[in-house]
Structure formats: C-alpha cells, structure tokens
# Entry
Amino acid sequence: MKRVFGILMLTLLTMASASAQNSIYKAVVGAHKDATGNIVVSDPSTTLAVDLVFETEQVVVGPYAKYAQKYLETRGALVDKSTTSLKSAKLAIVTDNALAAGTVAEPTTTISSYLGSENEFPKISPDRTSSSAMSLDDAAAQAAQAIFTIRKNRMDLISGEAGENVFGGGLKDALEALDAKEQAYLELFLGKKVTTTYTQRVIVPIVTGENEYVIAHTTSGKPEDIKLVLTPSEATPKFSTLSEVDPRDKTAIAVRIANIATCAVKVGNNVVGSASLPIFELGRTAYVAGVAK
# Structure
C-alpha cells in the first residue's frame, strides 16, 4: 500500500535537546511514569522531513533568434520553454517539533541566470542608433556587426594596441563594460536562460508495514512519482546500557528500539538523496527492569 502526502512549506525548526536526540533511538512503550511522576502513555513513532530541491529553467526567445545562424553562425532558442527537475533531496527525523537528526536547511528560493537575470528584453533594442525605420533583418545585421566591433575592441585593449594608458583597474572596468554590452547584444540572438532553484518540504509520518511512500510528482516532461523508500538494516541497534529482562518479569517495561534504515528519495531508479536514520516502525521491542534512561 502506498500513501501520498502533500508538500508543506515550513520554517526551520529548533534543534532538539540531547535527551530528545536519544529518544529517536529508543523510547518506552505503553503506560509509564514520566520525570514528574505523572502517568503517560507512549507510542513511539517516526516522522521524516524531506526537503526536495527543484530547479526550473526558463528559456526566453530573443527577437533576432532566427538570424543567429545567418549572422553569428550559431543557433539560438526558437521556442519559449520552461522545465522543472528534482536536483537533490535531504532528510531528517522530526521529533518534539524539531528536526533532530540529519538536519535539513530552511526552504529557500534563489535565482541565477546564464544569459542575464531578467525575463523580458528591453523595449528599445541596444542596436538602435537612430529613429529611422529598418527591417528586422537589417536590425539583426547591425546588432551582429556591433558584436564583432566589441570583440575587436576587446582584443585591442588586451593586446595594448588601443588604450595604451588603460591598465590595472581601468583595464578591468573597460573589459567588463565591453562584456556587458556584448552580452546584451547576444541575448537578442540567443535569448535568455533563467534558472530558479527552490526547496519544498514534505512531512512524512512513517507507518508500520509500509516501506515506500509517494511524496510528490515531477511536473515537467514525463510525469513520474517521487518516492521515499526505506530499507532497514539487518539488525536493530543494541545499547550497552540497556539491560534486557524476561518480558514476564513483574518489573519489566517495554522499550521500543529503532532500526537504522537507509531512507532514499528516488525518481524512477535514480536516487537523488539518502540518509541513514533510526525508524521505530522498523525496529524491535525490548524489555528492561525499571524506567529506561
């Protein structure tokens, strides 16, 4: 049986205390007295926080795209498109309203770009030097010539054939200005590519007997399930300080010991993130005399 969980955006929770850290590996089962003497009922369970890091790439076609081959001998994007892919995943145990193990980062959104950081081109193209009307082909030819002129000026500066008094920081500034101008022209042919990276957090309560969970879906290209798959280790951890007794002992108290499992986030057969975490639902029950510490 598979369970589907919605994506939740949460703020980063505070780190758990040392005692809470220990409680993710073992916990008393059933009714018992807590540190204040009150009777409480404990049912150890595991909840995982999974941070999915997505990357969206948006391509915006330049106004001179169809002339890129003619004047620059290269090909620019001819169709606007947007694709989103899952790049990585991080996992953590959630306990006492905190991320106590394998701490994941706070969900964030960042934007970077290959050819500029804006989604739209300027209304007035940088190749326009007069108010006289010209065809799109002529405007593209003029823009291409401007690119070649910039490249020649750059080489002249680097070789020293031009601007003999331009050196040091001045040379660096001049080259950066030329690079910026060339990029503005190139975008008219090659278009813009804007990449956005964002993180979404999924909270997954683990259920006994279920080792596979559909936690999200891909949204671009072929639709695929994003799955959380749990693979338990062959043996549950043993604690040197945990002295087990016969379950029939009158003083026996049941303690649930978590099993260390490989928790992997998969898209198809591709693993995008994994962590070894203690899972109560995959563990075993031990019996000790008195309250386990």
Remarks:
- The chain has two domains: 18-118+194-289, 136-190.
